[in-house]
């Protein structure tokens, strides 16, 4: 092996070490949130996939966003239910306005890392949750005649 090859090998190995450096340690807050989210899973519930999220494709997707508010639109779907959300951020809090199709007969359950809250649904499937703190959430919906459906967790 020539000196030039040895230098090239050493540079390559150094580049690999930098690329695969040890990740930052996980904070206690992240570990606590992960444990709480895991304990809130509903076994047997169907999973409504996130079909569209304006956070991933801003402006021009579901609706145009306003320059005056920080508004996000998300759409979840599975074979039995569709959930559409409008999430408005202001003063460090979030308001969630949603519509479930078909409209469930029971309230929508909004799961957070540390709690679950119940929100009444009108005959058209609309519901609201106001003054939420930033963080992960998932919705649980019981469609008419169907099994429980949980949305994927998203951070609002």
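-> sequence recovered:
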């Amino acid at each position: 092996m020539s000196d030039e090859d040895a230098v090239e090998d050493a540079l390559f190995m150094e580049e690999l070490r930098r690329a695969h450096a040890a990740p930052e340690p996980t904070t206690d807050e992240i570990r606590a949130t992960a444990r709480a989210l895991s304990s809130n899973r509903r076994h047997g519930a169907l999973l409504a996939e996130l079909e569209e999220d304006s956070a991933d494709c801003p402006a021009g997707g579901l609706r145009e966003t306003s320059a005056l508010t920080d508004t996000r639109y998300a759409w979840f779907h599975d074979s039995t239910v569709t959930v559409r959300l409008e999430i408005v951020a202001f003063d460090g809090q979030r308001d969630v306005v949603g519509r479930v199709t078909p409209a469930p007969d029971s309230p929508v359950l909004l799961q957070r890392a540390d709690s679950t809250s119940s929100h009444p649904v009108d005959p058209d499937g609309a519901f609201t949750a106001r003054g939420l703190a930033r963080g992960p959430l998932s919705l649980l919906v019981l469609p008419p005649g169907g099994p429980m459906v949980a949305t994927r967790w998203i951070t609002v």
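Residues 3-155 form one domain.
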